[in-house]
Amino acid sequence: MRVIDSHTAGEPTRTIVEGGPELGPGKLAERAARFEERHAWIRGALLTEPRGFDAMVGALLCPPDDPSCATGIVFFDTAGNLGMCGHGTIGVAATLAFQGRIAAGTLRFETPVGIVTVEAKSANTVAVENVESYRWRTGATVEVEGLGRVVGDVAWGGNWFFQCGQAPLPLVMENVPALTDAAVRVREALAGAGITGAGGARVDHIQFFGPPSSPAADSRNFTLCPGGAYDRSPCGTGTSARLACLAADGALAPGRTWVQESIIGSTYRAHYRAGSGGGIVPTIEGRAFVVGETVVHFAPGDPYRAGIGSVLSGDAGG
Ligand code: PYC
To answer: What is the pTM of this model?
Structure first.
């Protein structure tokens, strides 16, 4: 298998460019489900030690259902598939540009939750018009052990988010372990209280928001991803969900630029237009850089070929 690694605003994407699994026929969402069920070992093999680390997001390029799309993409992290991934989309666009497979201009990528439009402004700067995003629940309240009453909004931006404007601690790097611990407890409390996204979907991304460190930014965030790592980028789908909440509150006008800062200080520029389904259609712009190309080997005698702690099964040959 051959992968190309990139980072978008500090957050890594590992794109499988050769030798990925054959997912069979069906709609992209069905093929993505098959990837999650039958090829789970690939998540462990590519995204955990000894080859990876748990902040990595993988991207599997697949034939799109819609012929107007340049590619289909299944995003995944160590916990499972992601619906959409903003930083990953920017990373895939930079990767395809690096390979000379796309030129500057506008194209479409298909994801299991919808088609996104990608404008490659240069080799490294990419704007993504995301799927329609919306607030699902306002002022959801949970009792969280050690934190007390926590109030936030549940919103969709291509993944499900709980967004809390009162961070339990200042949003600085020294507090990442404590913020991670707090966010994990919020996520468990939400699940325990039956607070979900549409159709009972698990809210698997937790975000705390606070004031930015740069005067050029509007807000800073900390994002807990489903696999348990924090997002080094400002989180593209999370920023989309944030814009949906700001729009619903009348706090951000269509077309106005919102600069979202991550916990490491990297930024996305974002704006939105009205969607056709009552939500908003956000555009997120960020920068990605290719950092490496690797041929990955799976030696049959290697007990950790699917990653430390991963179960060898299916086509991993275990
Ligand atoms: O940028 O949308 C995103 C994202 C989701 C999980 C990690 N990054």
So the answer is: 0.96
